[in-house]
Amino acid sequence: MDDLELERAHFRGVLRAWSDYLQHAISVNSRRRASLASLPHAHQQILAETVQISSPVSGASGFRAKLDEIDDRIRRNADVLEQVAQFTRSFVGLLGEDDDDEQEQAADSPNKSPAEGDQDRVRTVLRQIARDWSSEGYEERRSAYQPLIDAVDARVSEGGSVLVPGAGLGRLAFEFALKGYRAQGNEFSYYMLLPSHFILNNTSRVREHTIYPYIHSASNWVSTEDMLRPVHFPDVLPTMLSPNADFSMVAGEFVEVYAKDCEHNEWDAVATCFFIDTAKNLLRYLEVINRVLRVGGVWANVGPLLWHFEHDSDSIELSLEEVMELLPRFGFEIEERRTLERQQYTGSGGMLAHLYMPEFWVCRKTREIEMAPAV
Ligand SMILES: C[S@@+](CC[C@H](N)C(=O)[O-])C[C@H]1O[C@@H](n2cnc3c(N)ncnc32)[C@H](O)[C@@H]1O
Predict the structure, then answer these.
(1) 375 CA → ligand 1 middle, Å
(2) Which string of DSSP letters, residue by residue, matches 86-132?
(3) What is the atom index within ligand 1 of the atom nearest the CA of 255?
(4) For residue 294, how far is the Cα from the chain centroid?
(5) How distant, in Å, are the alpha carbons of 2, 187, 256, 301, 370 from that of 331?
(6) Of 196, 193, 186, nearest to 132 (Cα)?
(7) In this structure, what DSSP letter does residue 250 have?
(8) Per-residue pLDDT of the chain in tens (375 residues, 90 and over written 9)
(9) Best probe residue, ligand 1, of 139, 142, 187 (max atoms within 8 Å of C-beta)
(10) Which of 110, 168, 243, 317 is most buried, most CB within 10 Å of its CB?
């Protein structure tokens, strides 16, 4: 397969995962229904009487109503995903007419079980929308994005350029654009690119869309209401950007896109958030960050070191101390560094919280370095 074919396959795979979501999520909830039906009748009766929820959708009450309400919310999530898919089908012109036939064939073979990993990514996207584009995500954005924004504000004048690699759904890059910088987000996953394209280019009012990101796990909820709660997005209107704003999202793998000659010395600042640990080889990321910055340019970073490829081959995992020792070797001089407050990443509330203590640093590029040739 050539690069374009690989790209198309990736895109088609994401659209397939998108459309499989409904069937997969409903089947998970059906297992709960089967569990309820397998209980002694007396226990079913107790659950019907004690679980205080009624379902306007089905007219049921008690535990059965809870399952009906989950199904209802799965359908609503699927509707939003479908809108995203419809809007983005022509995205970067990757699909041809034969793709419509293929999608129809896929819909005709409902017995094929969707890959769990792909469905996990779809569920993650729903939570990522809450982090980046809803008022629910305000606290996470304040903890993670604000230090980066402040660091750039203190060092780069308005109109300067900021690159955000691993931009996810684009909110941080958007915030830089809102402040008058030339801002560019870079992202390689269509799971992220599709919804960000949709939010940035197809929303016309605040809280226009509603999703239910927390219905996929029934564990650790204090109340069923918490699990069923809606998340409205976007919390701000992307069209509030001035028509003169210079904001873009670039699809592609960070090293492939930004090691190119045309990107050399192009940027005044690079802001990375929960990104550098996506590297198999962090040294290559450091080379490229150095390369895109002009001398005197600023790199601000926030994140833990949750090495994404730790269990794959060819991955190098480093401790924070080891990473810090690398920075001068790659032409960076540290200006500021601290451990940030404990924070969640796409946290959902409830009785379980994964807390990160991300490290924040700001450094300057002091000199050019050579990129090591590939082996
Ligand atoms: C943990 S998420 C962080 C997203 C966002 N910065 C945030 O803080 O919410 C890491 C993002 O980097 C993207 N990513 C990982 N490796 C990448 C690469 N080599 N090039 C471009 N994007 C990449 C992933 O798809 C994912 O969206």
Answers:
(1) 25
(2) HHHTTGGG---HHHHHHHHHHHH-TTSPPPHHHHHHHHHHHHHHHHH
(3) 19
(4) 28
(5) 36, 25, 21, 15, 10
(6) 196
(7) E
(8) 788 888 888 888 999 999 999 999 999 999 999 999 999 999 999 999 887 788 888 888 889 999 999 999 999 999 999 999 999 887 656 666 555 555 544 444 445 567 889 999 999 999 999 999 999 999 999 999 999 999 999 999 999 999 999 999 999 999 999 999 999 999 999 999 999 999 999 999 999 999 999 999 999 999 999 999 999 999 999 999 999 999 999 999 999 999 999 999 999 999 999 999 999 999 999 999 999 999 999 999 999 999 999 999 899 999 999 999 999 999 999 999 999 999 999 999 999 999 999 999 999 999 999 999 998
(9) 187
(10) 168
Q: How far away, in angstroms, is 270 Cα from ligand 1 center? A: 14
Determine whether 358 is exposed, middle or buried from the number of CB atoms within 10 Å of its CB (0-12, 13-18, 19+).
Answer: buried
Best of 140, 189, 282 to mutate for ligand 1, by most ligand atoms within 8 A of CB? 189
Alpha helices in 111-217 (DSSP H): 116-133, 138-155, 171-178, 190-201
What is the residue with the minimal CA distance to atom 14 of ligand 1? 166
Q: Which residues contact 47 (CB under 8 A, 6 or more apart)?
A: 36, 39, 62, 63
Q: Considering only the C-alpha atoms of the chain, give the largest distance between any 2 of them, rounded to a whole number of Å.
A: 75
Ligand 1 binding pocket (C-beta < 6 A) is 131, 144, 165-168, 186-189, 192, 253-254, 273-275, 278
Residues 6 or more apart whose CB falls under 8 angstroms from that of 148 comprise 172, 271, 273, 300, 301, 302, 360
Report which ligand 1 atom has the smallest distance to the Cα of 302: 8
Site to probe by mutation for ligand 1, drawn from 176, 188, 260, 270 as the one with most ligand atoms within 8 Å of Cβ, is 188
Separation of 59 CA from ligand 1 center, angstroms? 43
Domain range 116-375, its CATH number among 3.40.50.720, 3.40.50.300, 3.40.50.150, 3.30.1330.40 = 3.40.50.150
